[in-house]
Amino acid sequence: MRFLFFDRIEQFEKGKEAVGIKNISGGEEFFLNHYSRLPVFPEPLIIEALAQVGGWAISTSLNYRYLAIMVMIDEAKFFKPVHPGDQLRLKIEITEMNEYGAAIRGTAAVKGEIIARVERIYFTLFAVPSTHTHIIKKAYTFSSGKFWAESDHE
Amino acid sequence: MRFLFIDQIISYERGKSAVGVKSVTMSEDFLADHFPSFPIMPGVLQVEAISQLTSWLIYVTKDFKVMGTIAGIDKVKFKDPVKPGDQLTIEVQIISWDEEGVTFRGETKANGRVKTVLDSGRMNFIEVEKLEDPAEAREHFSILTREKPRGIFSP
Predict the structure, then answer these.
(1) Domains in chain B, please, with CATH?
(2) Which of A61, A72, A136, A130 has the alpha carbon at shortest distance from A99?
């Protein structure tokens, strides 16, 4: 299983918020036994999807000088199951961000209806050495759905 | 990759608690992305392991008729990283039962250190046959608890 849980970033406001999407495909491996009679997208992976959009937004807001690693989750609620064919709209707001850590709140929606909400995800920040920021920038630009940055001439 | 995060159920007390194991190994494919050249077992998959063990505890307590699905997680702390080679011990306790589900808590540990703590969460009941073939689920449970002698020619 690839451990990437968003496909594209649709909206982004530096330091404030981001919206990503994730398509739920019947071909994803965990559906083989989760569950064998009814494919349900695992709830902890909805948290991971929000955390990954959040981590992308935090790192991009900090110009790839830091990586955001999730350390605590507060109040995650799951209202409806998610099935193959659904598209998750992952909306996060950055609630805190400084050189030590960051936090987001997020919702996941399908067809305009919120199916899950996480009140807070807290991150710790790891500094990226300046020799490596270009690697992070390239990986994060790719995962955001843009295959090249606006300006590749740095 | 099968989405199974309990490899063995070491012990359980119906209605109350259970202890299980998940072995973390380099060949698990999610480690390739998490993180490149720095494999760490994702925290949310430890949450999944805690939930799966709780679901098995519900399953055996309710006479193999009912499982649990996650309705909410109140607080989880990821205290220490889990690496390939670690044998993760998962301990869960049920805090309360009601008609629709349970409130539970859980912890993962390895090498004598606490790795992840789930302070409380909520699972709702669902009939097994809605999700899995009941005979296969029963078989899987007996393998996890090592009830049956293992061997190619077992009856």
Answers:
(1) 8-144 (3.10.129.10)
(2) A61
Distance CA B39, CA B37 (A): 6
| Domains of chain A (ranges, CATH numbers) | 8-142 (3.10.129.10)
Instruction: Note the pTM of the prediction, 2 decimals.
Output: 0.94
Q: Which of A3, A35, A44 has its CB closest to that of B48? A: A44
Report the chain B residue with the minimal C-alpha distance to residue A51.
B44
* Percentage of chain A lying above the pLDDT 90 cut: 88
CA A27 to chain centre: 20
User: Nearest CA to A72 among A42, A105, A98, A43?
Assistant: A105
Handedness of CA B60, B61, B67, B71 (dihedral sign): negative
Using one digit for the tens of pLDDT, what is the confidence trace for A74-103? Answer: 999 999 999 999 999 999 999 999 988 999
Nearest by CB to A78, from B71, B74, B136: name it. B71
Tell me the count of A-B CB pairs closer than 8 A.
90
Q: Is B8 helix (H, G, I), strand (E, B) or coil?
A: strand
CA angle A118, A83, A19 (to 5 degrees): 45
Q: Which residue in this structure is represented by tokens 């406001």?
A: A13
Q: How many CB atoms lie within 10 A of CB B145?
A: 17
What are the chain B neighbours of A72 within 8 Å (beta carbons)? 75-78
Cβ contact B78–A33 (<8 Å): no
A83 interaction partners in chain B (CB closer than 8 Å) = none
Asked if B132's CB is within 8 angstroms of A72's CB, the reply is no
What's CA B65's distance to the chain center, in Å?
Answer: 18
